[in-house]
Specification:
Number of helices: 2
Largest sheet: 4 strands, antiparallel
Organism: Gemmata palustris
Shape: rod-shaped
Protein name: DUF4136 domain-containing protein
Strand order of the largest sheet: 1-2-4-3
Structural class: alpha+beta
Distance between the termini: 88 Å
Strand content: 35-45%
Oligomer: single chain
Order of helices and strands: HEEHEE
Helix content: 10-25%
Length: about 160
């Protein structure tokens, strides 16, 4: 009996690990997107965070950054629980027939349904935009120093400052 139970559980987990992905794309652009998972957990048996990060790497590569992550309400679950009670009582209008009192109590419960959404983008490589004057200068081309005009020379494109 226990051997059959263990094999059933193992087969179910193997089937689910092959085709049951809990991470999904909410939106997907060329170098960014949003991935949703049921909750922000990475412990057995729900490795949701690991699945989301694998999808992100598959989409934009290993060099990415998480821009935002948050819990988002996606809907509501409403439960209505009614209980009806039948009590036999004396019948005042017709004493020979039994009377009945019906009481119904109801409870309505509402819960939010939410998911964890991860917004990501591909990291852009760092570019030094101001190295036109040679090594050691980091000011961008066309920007004048606060003390006056910038030095001019071959290969330097300096625009005059006119307030």
């Amino acid at each position: 009996m226990s051997r059959v139970f263990v094999l059933t559980i193992a087969a179910g987990l193997a089937a689910c690990s092959v085709g049951c992905s809990s991470a999904r794309y909410v939106s997907k652009q060329s170098d960014s997107g949003v991935v949703a998972i049921p909750s922000n957990t990475n412990s057995w048996p729900f490795h949701y965070r690991q699945e989301a990060e694998a999808m992100i790497r598959q989409h934009v590569g290993a060099d990415y950054e998480i821009v935002d992550e948050r819990e988002v309400v996606t809907g509501a679950r409403v439960t209505n629980n009614e209980q009806t009670q039948h009590d036999f009582t004396p019948n005042k209008k017709q004493p020979n027939l039994p009377g009945e009192r019906v009481t119904t109590n109801g409870t309505v419960t509402s819960n939010n349904i939410s998911e964890w959404q991860i917004t990501y983008k591909k990291r852009q490589p760092f570019m030094n935009i101001g190295n036109a004057r040679g090594p050691g200068t980091n000011s961008p081309v066309g920007v004048q120093p606060a003390g006056g005009t910038a030095p001019t020379g071959p290969g330097v494109n300096v625009l005059p400052y006119n307030p």
